[in-house]
Input
Amino acid sequence: MTALQNISRTLPIVFASVADPVGAGIVDSLAHPGGNATGFMIYEYNLGAKWMELLKEIAPRVTRVAIIRNAANPAGVAQFAALQNAAQSLGVQTSPINVRDAREIERSVEAFARSPNGGLVVTQSASATVYRDVIIAAAARHKLPAVYALRYDATGGGLISYGPDVVHQFRQAAAYVDRVLKGEKPADLPVQAPTKYELTINLKTAKALGITMPDSLLARADEVIE
Output
């Protein structure tokens, strides 16, 4: 039993960014949580297709993609499967790089970069956040275009990110807290997927990698770092 499950036995819980609340056993289902916890997911699995499409848009020659992930993440298996499906439709080969420690990340990225036409997709997880600087530095060192999951990845030096607006997520969670305090039960409040996404492009990193961002993509960006 997780700590969140244990606490929710006695206190109502509103979570703001859980990857897979059903798989983790926090709620019975998204539509009907059925217990004392509800809230908001950090992503939908079809987001993986968007990451793959963005990578091909900014680096059309990419034919090999390393997916940096935490294999121990409860949502990791389904997320990786969604990314593989998207890659297949784009004619891209995928290989996983597990996030366990900095040295393994550096070795794995270096080995992957020995062959041409490679790129990275960095999935969202607590481990990816811990080793964010290591991943960004490895991508820069080996001149690999990379797509990240959250805005702070791009503001921290990553090439491009697309993912949920985390601030918006917490604002929505606060609204749920208000409803619970006014008497509604978490069991009656459906778990919701993100509804607001943000695209962030780091042109400094693009220049260092020799990548020219398409004007159409720049026009869609919520934030461009120059």
About this structure: Residues 12 and 36 are 5 Å apart (CA to CA). Residues 166-181 form the longest helix (16 residues). The radius of gyration is 18 Å.
